[in-house]
Design a protein that fits this description.
259 residues, 2 domains, five-stranded antiparallel sheet, 5 strands, 58% helix
């Protein structure tokens, strides 16, 4: 038992969180570019309290820059959506948004209506889809499509606050659905000196096969290397939409509180 305890102490000294990856992935545009654009757009639109009080021109520049930076990657994710109507409206909105300033008094209202319907349709599709890979894919696009809807709404002179509320609700649904499967492993031995010695491992696995774990060690009532549950869960989901949504949701709620 003494050797086991010494081995445990050494393990504490050397312990680092462990992330186990799936297969290597090709480099692609950072999804944060078009998830976090919702924060940039909302921050500009609602900087003056919403309802036309913000900076529409700056908001437009934010979404146009995001589309310009990774339009093809956005379109690739759109093409992976199974629902044809959602795929069509998302693709249309992405391609037409750069031309919003050239739309006349007849075209702009139609674009606005289509963008709003597409935003709500994308959220409904997310709620209905069962495959977590498909859910993760549509969640990556929500920030962009809701940003387009908010800008078109504001350009028509309407208050887009309810769209911000809907995006916040949609991102909360993302965190409830796109999450890792986690569990605990315990091994305990009796010991005359310590009373007991326990190794506790917390591990999580994402739907894409990525995983992470953390080990803590108990000597009697003393714990070494206490588990950071949030880190393990986030690290397991590192190649999914979830870490970006956690950050974006907090920022959107802060913006909404100031409206």
């Amino acid at each position: 038992m003494r050797k086991r305890l010494l081995g445990g102490v050494l393990a504490v000294c050397l312990a680092v969180p462990v992330a186990v990856g799936g297969t290597a992935r090709p480099a692609k545009a950072d999804p944060a570019v078009w998830i976090n654009v919702a924060v940039a757009v909302a921050g500009k639109l609602f900087g003056g309290g919403g309802g036309g009080g913000g900076d529409l021109e700056q908001a437009k520049r934010e979404i146009l820059a995001a589309i310009s930076a990774s339009q093809q990657d956005i379109l690739n994710h759109i093409d992976a959506i199974a629902a044809a109507d959602v795929r069509a409206c998302l693709r249309s909105g992405t391609l037409l948004m750069p031309n919003i300033d050239q739309m006349d008094v007849y075209t702009l209202p139609v674009f606005m209506e289509n963008s709003i319907n597409c935003a709500t349709r994308s959220s409904a599709y997310f709620d209905a889809v069962q495959d977590l890979s498909a859910a993760d894919n549509i969640a990556r696009l929500m920030g962009e499509i809701y940003s387009i809807a908010m800008i078109s709404f504001e350009k028509m002179g309407f208050d887009s606050t309810y769209l911000l509320d809907d995006l916040i609700g949609s991102y909360e649904a993302v965190l409830n659905k796109v999450k890792p499967a986690c569990g605990d492993d315990w091994q305990t031995w009796n010991d005359n000196e310590w009373g007991f010695y326990t190794e506790h491992r917390y591990h999580c696995q994402a739907f894409n096969g990525d995983s992470a774990s953390w080990m803590e060690y108990w000597y009697g009532s003393n714990v070494e290397n206490p588990i950071d549950h949030a880190w393990v869960e986030s690290e397991a989901m590192r190649n999914t939409v979830r870490p970006h949504v956690v950050q974006t949701l907090a920022q959107l709620k802060q913006i909404r509180a100031g409206v």
